[in-house]
Recover the amino acids of this structure.
């Protein structure tokens, strides 16, 4: 073997070794990122999760609104990426506790009974003026969180809560993800925000709970694409509100936002 051939063989060996090392590093980075994603969503390989959705207002059967259906499509990509499986369940058929399986609950409390229950037990500091007993006027559909009120301007400014919540300190507890907005288009916006930012949220919150208030801007023109973070409202949303002062006549104070049944 002459010197030229020897150098050529050495170059090929070095190139092959570098290529193999590059693939190994790339694979390790991908696996580490995948494990981080699985921990964030609580979805190890071959695990199961629930998609819980509400009923379109006034519907006799069980059609899902377009915005909610598109939100589920966004979420299903993460489930597939984690190597997990999803079960679609109507809101009034999900009669089980939380923590055993990861749950993605989509819809406002007026159309999703499961969401109303989660708000009561997990986000007691949130009040939503929605449902059949909602007060008419500019506060209809408004969120009240920590003394602040967030009104809806249909098609212009709409809000949605994106939350990752766990109960207890058990490391095996699976999270509940809530997508609770003032209109169905906001649920797709929140799921898209989660898709784009889940790695950053995982770095910031780890496996802990959080509740973010998002604002969807000009949905009538941009759909669910323009989303702004209003505030991290975790502390206010997870803390019970102060007891209301009695009215001067001794009765209960009337008015204000209330939770839908």
């Amino acid at each position: 073997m002459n010197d030229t051939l020897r150098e050529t063989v050495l170059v090929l060996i070095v190139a092959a070794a570098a290529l193999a090392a590059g693939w190994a590093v790339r694979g390790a980075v991908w696996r580490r990122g995948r494990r981080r994603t699985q921990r964030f969503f609580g979805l190890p390989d071959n695990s199961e999760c629930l998609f819980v959705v509400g009923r379109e207002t006034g519907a006799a059967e069980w059609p899902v609104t377009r915005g909610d259906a598109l939100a589920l499509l966004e979420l299903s990509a993460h489930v597939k990426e984690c190597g997990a499986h999803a079960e679609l369940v109507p809101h009034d058929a999900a009669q089980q506790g939380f923590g055993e399986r990861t749950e993605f609950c989509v819809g406002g409390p007026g159309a999703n009974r499961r969401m109303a229950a989660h708000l009561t037990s997990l986000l007691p500091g949130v009040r939503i003026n929605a449902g059949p007993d909602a007060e008419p006027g500019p506060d209809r559909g408004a969120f009240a969180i920590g003394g602040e009120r967030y009104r809806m301007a249909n098609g212009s400014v709409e809000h949605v809560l994106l939350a990752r919540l766990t109960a207890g300190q058990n490391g095996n507890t699976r999270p509940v993800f809530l997508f609770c907005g003032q209109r169905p288009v906001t649920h797709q916006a929140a799921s898209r925000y989660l898709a784009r930012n889940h790695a950053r949220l995982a770095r910031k919150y780890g496996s802990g709970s959080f509740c973010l208030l998002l604002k969807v801007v000009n949905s009538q023109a941009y759909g669910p694409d323009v989303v702004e973070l209003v505030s991290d409202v975790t502390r206010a949303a997870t803390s019970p509100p102060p007891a209301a002062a009695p009215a001067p006549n001794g009765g209960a104070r009337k008015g204000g936002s209330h939770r839908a049944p």
User: Anything to note?
Assistant: Helices lie at 3-41, 66-81, 113-122, 184-205, 219-222, 234-238.
